[in-house]
Write a structure and sequence with these properties.
There is one protein chain. This protein has 4 helices and no strands. With 167 residues, it is mainly alpha-helical. The chain has one domain. Helix 1 runs parallel beside helix 4. The chain starts with 24 loop residues before the first helix and ends with a helix.
Length: 167
């Protein structure tokens, strides 16, 4: 059975034997840990940038729709369903990217937790324990669940506009 539980991951295979690096092992492990934590932070930064892009793009589509259809222009019939269709597609792509980033972050934090087992303090592991057992007694809701509400709201909004246009 793999070290670290029944996940099918052989956690020990990712670590070279300590005697291979001698007295430098702990120092090298700490440096790699720092780099890996930094890379997870960069993924979170990219995730935020992606959120901003999709929020801006959907808001732009809603604005263009309002100007095209609300102004009674000649292109209102085509724009009355094409723009919302683009909004639905954009929103669904946004949901898929949220799921992808969530999976990537989850994997990164599992690796960080396993590396921490070889370090003096397990700060990320401790942080999750604090979050899960909050003194307020309120249940922790993962960010990705909250994040999905925004594109799903846009998708429903744009689907409603399509339905209205086709009726």
């Amino acid at each position: 059975m793999a070290a670290g539980g029944s996940s099918g991951v052989d956690w020990d295979s990712g670590f070279a034997p300590e005697d291979r690096f001698g007295s430098e092992y702990s120092k090298l492990l700490l440096e790699q840990y720092k780099l890996y934590v930094d890379s997870s932070s960069k993924v979170s930064d990219r995730r935020g940038t992606t959120q901003t892009f999709f929020l801006s793009a959907n808001t732009l589509l809603a604005t263009v729709y309002g100007l095209a259809v609300g102004g009674g222009s000649a292109s209102a019939s085509a724009g009355s369903w094409m723009i919302p269709l683009a909004g639905v597609m954009l929103s669904l792509s946004w949901v898929l990217l949220i799921q992808s980033y969530s999976s990537l972050n989850s994997a990164k934090f599992r690796v960080i937790e396993h590396v921490e087992q070889r370090l003096p303090a397990q700060l990320f592991t401790l942080e999750w324990q604090v979050i899960k057992h909050s003194a307020s007694g309120r249940r922790y809701v993962p960010l990705n669940r909250i994040e999905r509400l925004i594109p799903l709201t846009f998708a429903v909004f744009f689907a409603g506009l399509i339905a209205h246009a086709l009726i």
